[in-house]
Amino acid sequence: MTTAIGLTARAAWSRTPFCRERHVHFDDDEPWVLDNEHGRDFYWVALHEIGHALGLNHSDRREAIMFAFVKSYDPYLNLNQDDINGAKHLYPLRFCEKFSRQRIRLLRGKKK
């Protein structure tokens, strides 16, 4: 995430033969806070960077978590419909259901 100050956090992912590795990094030098407006809002930045790790790009909607610039502290932080629509586009329900069934089979020791 880039601000007027510079990089505060970033997300990255890479494709391997078996899965995608996803990483979220937070800058140690930032004044991270959890419940007030006197520092960098960890929850907002974390949610934004996890969105990138999932594959979401920046949104042009100011109210969206995936908006490109850091917002001020909001005690009622919520996903915006634009964020939800982006996630649903990348991960449609049928994909998630299929993935869950396959994962359960693997966890139970069954191949198919």
Automatic annotation (TrEMBL):
Ranges of residues in domain Peptidase M10 metallopeptidase:
21-91
What name is this protein filed under?
50 kDa hatching enzyme-like
Under InterPro entries, the record lists: MetalloPept_cat_dom_sf, Pept_M10_metallopeptidase, Pept_M10A
Alphabetically ordered keywords of this record: Hydrolase, Metal-binding, Metalloprotease, Protease, Signal, Zinc
Domain of life (superkingdom): Eukaryota
Which metal ions or organic cofactors does this protein require, according to UniProt? Zn(2+)
Q: Say which family it is in.
A: Belongs to the peptidase M10A family.
